[in-house]
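User: I've been trying to design a sequence by hand for this structure and keep getting stuck. Would you show me what you'd pick, starting by listing the structure so we're on the same page?

Assistant: Good idea, let's start from the same input. This is the structure you sent:
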């Protein structure tokens, strides 16, 4: 089973493009994630996620990637503390949860769908 995600951006991105996208003075993680994902979308970046029998989960950068990014600190904390964690891909139409569990030196991933889509292998 493979589970993968990637971000690709145009090679012509310059610092002047990024400098023209000001952020509010905020240290709120969720705001920064949403704003950063919006900026990446505006400059043409693409987000791809696949796995559990589906080659493309149909994610975008501005919203869908931010839902993943906002959950990363909690996932990493759980993996570090007890070897378990989850990401809820709650975007409409996707609606699935991927759980992570440390098994020896690796992690077992399971996917649970809340739609008619069935993950392969099943959870």
């Amino acid at each position: 089973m493979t589970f993968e995600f990637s971000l690709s951006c145009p090679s012509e991105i310059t610092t002047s493009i990024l400098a023209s996208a000001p952020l509010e003075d905020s240290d709120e993680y969720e705001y920064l994630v949403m704003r950063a994902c919006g900026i990446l979308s505006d400059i043409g970046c693409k987000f791809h996620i696949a796995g559990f029998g589906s080659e493309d989960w149909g994610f975008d950068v501005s919203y869908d990637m931010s839902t993943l990014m906002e959950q990363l600190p909690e996932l990493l904390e759980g993996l570090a503390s007890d070897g378990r964690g989850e990401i809820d891909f709650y975007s409409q139409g996707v609606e699935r949860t991927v759980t992570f569990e440390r098994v020896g030196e690796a992690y077992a991933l399971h996917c649970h769908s809340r739609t008619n889509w069935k993950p392969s292998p099943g959870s």
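That's my pick for every position. To get oriented when you compare it with your attempt: The beta strands are 3-8, 46-51, 84-89, 96-103, 106-113. The chain has a mean pLDDT of 87.
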